[in-house]
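Self-study notes.
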Amino acid sequence: MIYPVVVYGHPVLRKVAEEIESDYEGLSQLIEDMWETMYKADGVGLAAPQIGIPIRLFVIDGNDMAEDFPELEGFKRVFINAEIVEFEGSKVNEAEGCLSLPGIREEVSRPSKIRIRYDDENFVEHDEVYEGFAARIIQHEYDHIEGKLFVDYLSPLRKRLIKRRLNAISEGKAETSYKIKLPR
C-alpha cells in the first residue's frame, strides 16, 4: 500500500515518536508499505511520522546514490527505536531535500560521523558507526522521529526567505509526483 506523504505543517511531524516492541501489530506490512511509498516518491529515506504514524521507525535505501557516494553501495536498512549516541567529525554543509517539504532544498550543516544504536526489522540490536553521506541521511531521518525537520537548522534569515514556500506547502500548493496529506 502506498501512503500519502504528510507535508509541512502537520502536527505529527513535530512529535517525538514512540518506541515500539517486536509485537507491534502489522509491522512487517508497514515496513513493506514504507519501502513502496518511498520508492514511489523517489525518496532515499522515509520515516513513519512522514506517513502519519508517530513511531520510531525509518527506512533508508541509498543504492541509487552510490555512484556519487560510494559508501551508499548496498546501504539499505530498517531502523527501529534508533538512538544516535555520538556525533563526531567536522560539520559538513550539503543541500538537503525532504518528501515532506516538496520543492525545497537548502544547505544544512551536519556532523560527518555518527554512532547509532537501533533494532533492525527482526529486532536484532545494532551499534554502528556511519560516515559521509550515509551519516547525513541517517541524521535527516532520525530528526523525523525526534520531531525535527531540516529547515530547523537554517538561519533565521534563511527561514524568513522560504516562509512563503513553506506556507504554500502546508496549504497543498506543491507539485509532487506522489500523494500528499495536508495538515488539516
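Second protein, same conventions, sequence then structure:
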Amino acid sequence: MANLTMITGFLLMSFSNTWELQVLHIMLFLLIYLVALMGNMLIFILISVDVHLHTPMYFFLKNLSFLDLCFITVTVPKSIANSLSHSYSISYLGCATQVFLGILFAASEVFILTAMFYDRYVAICQPLHYEMIMKYESCMKMAVASWLTGGIIGLMYAVSTFSLPFCGSKEICQFFCDVNSLFRIACSKTYVAVDVTIAIGSVLVILCCIFIAVSYSQIFSAVIKIPTTEGQSKAFSTCLPHLIILTVFVTTGAMAYLKPPLDSDTIVDLLLSVLYTMVPPTLNPVIYSLRNKDMKPSMKKLIA
C-alpha cells in the first residue's frame, strides 16, 4: 500500500536518445507551435479589433482560435522544455492538470465547431430568421455552454483517472499525460468511473456528429437549389472548412482514445497524439484566414 502513496510524479516519453534527433524534435515542435501561436493570435486580434467581423460566425471562430491556442499550449511547450533540459519528469499535479485542460479544450472545441455548423445551417437554410435566431445573447449562451460542458468533462476525466492507484513504473509512453497511457501504469484494471466518463464523452461527441451530419444534409440540399454557381460556391466556401477541421480533429482523436488501452501500439499512439494535438490548431488559421475574403482586408489593414 505504501507504493500507492509514494507516486509524486511521472516520466514522459523521450522521442529519441540521440542528440541530433532531439534537436530535430525541438526545432520541429517549436516551429509548429510558433505557427499555431501566431496564426491563432492573429485571427483572435483581427476579429476583436475589426467591427466588420463582429458577427456570429466570427464570434465562434474567435472562440475556436483561443481554444486551439490553449489546446496546443497544454502539451507542446512542456515537451520542448523537457528535451532542452533532458529532464522528462512531470509532477503528479502537473500531469493531472494536463489531463484536465487537454480534455477541457478538446471537448469545448467539438462543441464550438457544432455551434459553428448550426450558425451556417441557420444562415443558409433559414436566412430570413438568421438575425433573430443568432442574436449575440444566443451566441454567448452557446459559447458558455460549450466551455462549461468541456470543463465538466475534463474534470470528470481528471478525477476518474487520478482516482486510480498508480504503482510500479512511472513512465508514460507519451510526450504528454495521456489518459490511455496512464491506464497502462495503473495498478487497478477496473476502470468503472473512467468507463462511465468515456461513455458520456463519446455519447456527447456522437450526438454532435449526428447533429452536424443532419444539418449538413439540409445545407447541401439548400445549396444545390441556389440558382447561380457563384452563390453555390460562396455557400460551400463557408461550410467546407468547418467540415475539414472537424473531420481531422474528431477522426484522429477518436482513433487515439477509442482504441483498447492495453492493446495499443506505442508508436501508433504517439503519431496519433501528435496529429490531433498539433495539426488542427496549426491548420485552422491557415484554412480560415487564407481562404476567407472577409479576413484578408482586415489583415491588410492591421499590417498597414
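Instructor comment on the second fold: The domain at 8-303 is CATH 1.20.1070.10 (Rhopdopsin 7-helix transmembrane proteins).
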